[in-house]
Structures are given as C-alpha cells and as structure tokens.
C-alpha cells in the first residue's frame, strides 16, 4: 500500500509534534509537513502535495475553515479532515459544505484517528458520532423553529413535502387520503404563509428555510 502523505495543521506546537509522533508510528502514514496556520498549510499543499490535510479550526493568520475552502478550490483531490476541540455544529456544517471529508474532535483516541484517516483516504467521509448527533439536533431544531415562524400545520408540512416531490393534486390526495379540494385549500394556505406564488417558489423557500 502506498503511504498516506499527511499534512498536520495546528497553531499549538505541542499538539502538532504529539500528533506527528503518534501518526508516524503507523506504517501506512507519513507526516510530510507541519503548519502553524492556514496560510502555511496552503503553502505546504503547493510544495508537498499531501494526500490528506489534518486541519485545526481556530488559528491565527488564516483559520481552518477559510484554509479548507482555498485548498479544496485549488487542489480538489487533497482530502481535508477537520480536527478540533470546538464542538460548535456550525463549523461542521460549513466545513462539510465546502468539501471537507471528515470532522473529528481532538479528544479522539489515536487508534480511532488513524482509522479515520485511512477511511477518508479510501474515498470515505467521516463525522464523529457525537458531532453527527449534534448536527442532526440542530437541523431538527431549526426545522421546528421555522415551521412555527411560518405558522405551518403538520398537515401543511406533509403537503409541502409532496409538492417538493413533484406530485400532482390528485397524487397528493391519494397519498394523504384527502379530497382534491382539501389539497387545493392546503396549497393556497401554504402559498399565503410562505408568501410565494407557485409550487416551484414554495419548494425552493421550503428547502432554503429547512422546512422540509
């Protein structure tokens, strides 16, 4: 197996050196470089062409999120695993949305970290279980909050989901066991509450506001 070329990025020297020592004990991993901030990481990506970048978030000069965005734009084949002590779910969402392949907490056991690096190297993606639960909780909370903000009833949300699936009024009536007239009334109410004029606008707004 060809060795995984790893670039470590963290503003704390002790963490960089400790991780490098631990990861270099694995015969499949070679730590090819250490960077103290996002800007150094970009420079080393240019020079070293690592397979994977293990990226911290909170760093001086250039943070890990912005550095990840630049790395993925310039070298889309380089995989980025975010490693941080910060459990804010917003970071998870943003990092994954810009192309990061993994997101783990620094408290992870070294064996699990090595396993995660290998998993990502083999075309996988990885988010720790605790962060995945937090992300799901945030999404559900946001969805419930927005539903209340727009005053949508549970039935209206069901109809809205059907609209997003491209179902006709007849199909919706059959699926939800409603008359077509009732379906039309629900759709009119949805349009009014969301301040939209048609199915397309309703679907786009619903997805943008995480209502469905």
TrEMBL record:
Sites bearing 4-aspartylphosphate, chain numbering: 56
SUPFAM superfamilies: CheY-like (SSF52172)
Pfam families: GerE (PF00196), Response_reg (PF00072)
Domain HTH luxR-type: 145-210
GO molecular function, one term: DNA binding
GO process terms (BP): phosphorelay signal transduction system; regulation of DNA-templated transcription
Top-rank taxon: Bacteria
Gene3D superfamilies: 3.40.50.2300
Domain Response regulatory: from-to ranges: 5-121
Keywords recorded for this protein, A-Z: DNA-binding, Phosphoprotein, Transcription, Transcription regulation
InterPro entries on file: CheY-like_superfamily, NreC/VraR/RcsB-like_REC, Sig_transdc_resp-reg_receiver, Tscrpt_reg_LuxR_C, WalR-like
Name of the molecule in the record: Response regulator transcription factor
Species whose genome carries this gene: Lysinibacillus antri
């Amino acid at each position: 197996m060809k060795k995984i070329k790893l670039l470590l990025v963290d503003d704390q020297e002790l963490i960089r050196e400790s991780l490098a020592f631990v990861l270099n004990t694995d015969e499949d991993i070679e730590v090819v470089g250490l960077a103290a901030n996002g800007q150094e990481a970009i420079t080393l990506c240019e020079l070293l062409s690592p397979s994977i970048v293990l990226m911290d978030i909170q760093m001086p000069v250039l943070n890990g999120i912005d550095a990840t965005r630049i790395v993925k734009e310039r070298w889309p084949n380089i995989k980025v695993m975010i490693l941080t002590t910060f459990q804010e779910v917003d970071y998870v969402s943003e990092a994954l949305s810009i192309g990061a392949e993994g997101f783990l907490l620094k408290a992870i056991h070294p064996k699990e970290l090595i396993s995660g690096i290998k998993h990502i190297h083999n075309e996988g993606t990885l988010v720790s279980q605790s962060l995945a639960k937090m992300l799901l909780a945030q999404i559900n909370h946001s969805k419930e909050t927005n539903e209340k903000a727009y005053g949508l009833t549970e039935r209206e949300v069901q109809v809205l989901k059907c609209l997003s699936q491209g179902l006709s009024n007849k199909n919706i009536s059959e699926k939800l066991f409603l008359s077509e007239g009732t379906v039309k009334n629900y759709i009119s109410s949805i349009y009014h509450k969301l301040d939209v004029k048609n199915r397309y606008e309703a679907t786009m707004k619903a997805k943008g506001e995480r209502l469905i």
